[in-house]
Amino acid sequence: MLFLDLAKAFDTVDHALLIKKLKCLGFRYGTTMWFESYLSDRQQLTVVEGHSSSLRHMNCGVPQGSILGPLLFICYVKDLQRHCLYSMPCVYADDTALLCTGDNPEIVEGMLQHDLNVLSKWFVVNKLSVNVGKTKAMLFTSNRSKYKHYELSVSLCNENVKHVYSMKYLGLILDPHLTFSLHINKLCGKLNSRSKLLWQIRGFIDFNLAKMLYLSLIQPHILYCNFVLDGATMTEKGKLQIQQNTALRAVCKADYAFSTAKLLSAVGVDSVQTCMKKTTCKIVHKGLYNLGPPALNDMFNHYEPARQRRSSTACLVDIPHCQTQFGMKNIAVRGAKYSNMLPLEIKTCPVTDNFKAMIKKYPGFD
User: Fold this and answer.
1) What are the tens digits of pLDDT across the range 132-190?
2) 201-240: burial string, b at 16+ Cβ within 10 Å, e else
3) What is the DSSP letter of 202?
4) Shortest CA distance to 152 belongs to which of 128, 176, 131?
5) What distance in Å separates the CA atoms of residue 195 and residue 67, rounded to the nearest whole number?
6) Which residue of 1, 53, 205, 244 shows the fewest CB atoms closer than 10 Å?
C-alpha cells in the first residue's frame, strides 16, 4: 500500500480544470455556472505583525473549512482511478492511497511502480504536486509470511519512497500484520487520561452530567473504526474493555466489586465487543442491500445452497472460504458470521433506520 501526500492539495485545485471536470461528471449548465461564480473573483492577502500585503486574485484553490471544499476536491481527482491499471485508489478528501495485492512482493512493486509512473504525469497535467518525502509505502503480510521483512522499493519523481512499519491513515494506526496493537495502545493511553479526569471531578458532578461527559469524551473513541479493530486479538480488545470499565466505574461511583454488566446497564451502553459486532452488522446490511460503495456491495452476498434445505429460508450471508487466521480477520468473514447470528426479522429488514433501531436493542451479542 502506498500512502500519497499531496502538497497543499486544496490550495492547488485549478478553477478552470475543476469546472471542466464538473461538466464531464454530468453537472448541468446552471450548476456549473453557480460553482464558477462561487470560485471566481476571490482575493487573499497576508498579514504579518500588523502589516498587510496587497490583494491578489486567486485562480486556484477551494475554500477550506467548508462543506463544499472536500466535495469539490473529490470531484477534481475523480478521474484518478481511471489511470490506475493495477492498483485501487483509496481517496478520502486529500488523503489518497494506492492499494495493490499480489502473491509476490516483487510483482506488487512492479504494479505499483507502473501506476506511479502514470500518475506522476497525471499530477503534472492536473497541477497537483506530491510531497515525496512524506509519501510512504507499507507491505501487509501475515506474521508467518516469509516476506514479512521485505521492504517495498518504489520511486516517484526520481526519488525513492520510504518504506515504513507503521502509518496513521484516517485516524487509524496501521501495522504490517494488521494487529492494530499500536493503535489500541495509543487509544488506551488517551482513554486512560480522560478516565482519570472523570474520576477527579466525579465528586463535584451528578450522574447525568458524568454520563454526558462519558458519552462525549470517551464513547466516540471506542466507536471510531471499531469494526476494523474487531480484527485484533481478544487480548488487544480486552485492553479497550478495561478502559471502558474504568470510565464506567467513575460515572457510577462504583468499586471493582461492581460487575461489568451492571455498569453497562446503568449507563445504557454496550460492551466494546458488542459495539464492534453491531457496527459490523450495519456494514454488512449496507452491502447486502446495495446501500454502500461498489466494493462493499460486492463483498457480501446471500447464501444460495445447491439444493433446497432448511437454511434456504434463513436469509444467511455467504461466508468466504478461509484457511488462515490472518484471513479470518477479513470483515467479509467476520461480518457474515455476525449477520448469520441475527434473528430473521432483523436480517430481513430492508430499511436502514429500522435495522439500526432493531439491532441497537438486540441483546444476542452480550
Assistant:
1) 999 999 999 887 778 888 899 999 888 899 999 999 999 999 999 999 999 999 999 99
2) ebeeeeeeebbebbeebbbebbbebbbbbbbbeeebbebb
3) G
4) 176
5) 33
6) 53
Cα gap 211→234, rounded to integer Å: 27
- Rounded Cα gap, residues 284 and 344, in angstroms: 15
Report residue 45 CA to chain centroid gap: 36
CB atoms within 10 A of CB 22: 19
> Quick count: other Cβ atoms within 10 Å of Cβ 98?
23
For the chain, the residue count is: 366
| DSSP β-bridge partners for residue 220 | none
User: Residue 349 and residue 366: Cα distance in Å, rounded?
Assistant: 21
Tell me the per-residue pLDDT of 31-84, one tens digit each, with 9 for 90 and over. Answer: 999 998 988 888 888 899 888 888 888 888 888 888 888 899 999 999 998 999
Question: How many whole angstroms from its chain centre is CA 187?
Answer: 16
Contact 4, 99 (CB under 8 A): no
Q: Nine-digit cell at 161?
A: 519512497
pTM above 0.85, yes or no: yes
User: Cβ(88)–Cβ(49) under 8 Å?
Assistant: no
**DSSP 8-state secondary structure symbol assigned to residue 310:** G
Please tell me the distance from the alpha carbon of residue 55 to that of residue 46, in angstroms, as a whole number.
8
CA 25 to chain centre: 25
Strand partners, 188: none
Cell readout for 352 is 436502514
Alpha carbon distances (Å) from 69 to 13, 93, 124, 329: 10, 9, 21, 35
Query: What 3-state class would DSSP assign to 322?
Result: coil
* Residue 291 vs residues 155, 225, 282, 298, 346: alpha-carbon distances, Å: 38, 19, 11, 11, 17
* Amino acid identity for residue 198 in this structure: L
| Separation CA 68–CA 313 (nearest Å) | 45
